[in-house]
Amino acid sequence: MNLALNGQLQTIASGTGHLCAYVKGQGRPLILVHTINAAASAAEVRPVFESLSQHRTVYAIDLPGYGNSERADRLYTPRLMTDAIHDLVKHIQAVHGPQAIDALAVSLSCEFLARAAAEQPTHFQTLSLVSPTGFTGLKLRQAQEGKTYGLNWLWKLLQGPGWGLSIFNLLTRPKVIRYFLKKTWGSDNIDEEMYRYAVWTTRQPGAQHAPLSFLSAQLFSADITNIYDKLTQKVWMSHGTRGDFVDYRGKQRYANSQNWCFTVYESGALPYFEMPDQFSIDLLQFLNKT
């Protein structure tokens, strides 16, 4: 087994299937949730995992369909991913006691973390959202609760004989993975260790199933503005200024909210890879204020 992180890999009881998380450190628990793409895994949060484990007990989840968690042939939805976070919280509270937990998520997974926090507000102390989705432009995403942007016809097409796997194989060729990481970084200076794990994890059985749901927009919530509006916890939102993910005009909606604060880094979409020391300082400062 190829491990994404230098920590203990734990299996967690979950209604979402075989669920795994890496654990390291001591102290108050902190959850880390990787992003969603064709080659995602807990490897995407490695710098935060290593740095914060010196101060906290850090749990870095492999979401359903990724890493060492179950990669079943099924439809992957915000409900499934949110329930996985709920199950991780239950596991942590069983180990550490019934306390509110700090949590950090990246990109699309910020939507799942926010939904979990809106549904169980007493389970979360703080939310750290890194390059979150749902803030592009000024469009409000206020559809009926639970509605997604999923294209069912496309998902069914991708389930057809050979289609989905062929497209997935094209998108996960090493040169293509490197291309998309460069777009994420906004430069050529990607993290090579993360790149190597991304290539490896896409070669594992069932690796295509969650990404095909992602490609057909099944994992994007059409009601996410309503979810962000419901958050009562302290929220720290951070993002970079380079690459494909730089439009966060929608954050102005929360500019005057007492529980939201913001940091902008001169970096790509994963600032903690490029500025690990500064990011850790900022994250700890935010966590220790509460």
SSE string: EEEHEHEHEHHHHHHEEHH
Span of the ends, CA to CA: 38 Å
> Could you say which structural class the secondary elements and strand pairing correspond to?
alpha/beta
What is the total tally of β strands? 8
Based on the model shown, name its key terms.
290 residues; 37% helix; eight-stranded mixed beta sheet; Rossmann fold; single chain; alpha/beta
Describe this structure in words.
The chain is built from eleven helices and eight strands. By secondary structure, the chain is an alpha/beta fold. The chain has a single domain, classed as 3-Layer(aba) Sandwich (Rossmann fold), CATH 3.40.50.1820. The chain has an eight-stranded mixed β-sheet, sandwiched between helices. Helix 1 crosses helix 11 (276-289) and helix 3 (109-119) packs across helix 9. The longest helix has 19 residues, at 78-96.
